[in-house]
Amino acid sequence: MGNIRPSFIKIRALRLVELYPDVFNNDFENNKHFVSEYTDVSNKRMRNWIAGYITRYQQRRVD
């Protein structure tokens, strides 16, 4: 059973992937760094949530 994420996490994550398609990849640490660089997310939990969703999204796109 997977995690259910709120729609505001998905919307922000997909918008970032659309704007910066070459930056994000399957590496969580890389995505975490770029999420904090390209957004104004102030707390760590939301940054990690968005980076985690981007990571899983990229892994599903490759398969």
UniProtKB/TrEMBL annotation:
Pfam families: Ribosomal_S17e (PF00833)
InterPro entries, per the entry: Ribosomal_eS17 (IPR001210), Ribosomal_eS17_sf (IPR036401)
CC per GO annotation: ribonucleoprotein complex; ribosome
GO molecular function per UniProt: structural constituent of ribosome
One of the GO BP terms on file: translation
Family stated for the protein in its record: Belongs to the eukaryotic ribosomal protein eS17 family.
UniProt name for this protein: Small ribosomal subunit protein eS17
Organism: uncultured Poseidoniia archaeon
Gene transcribed to yield this protein: rps17e
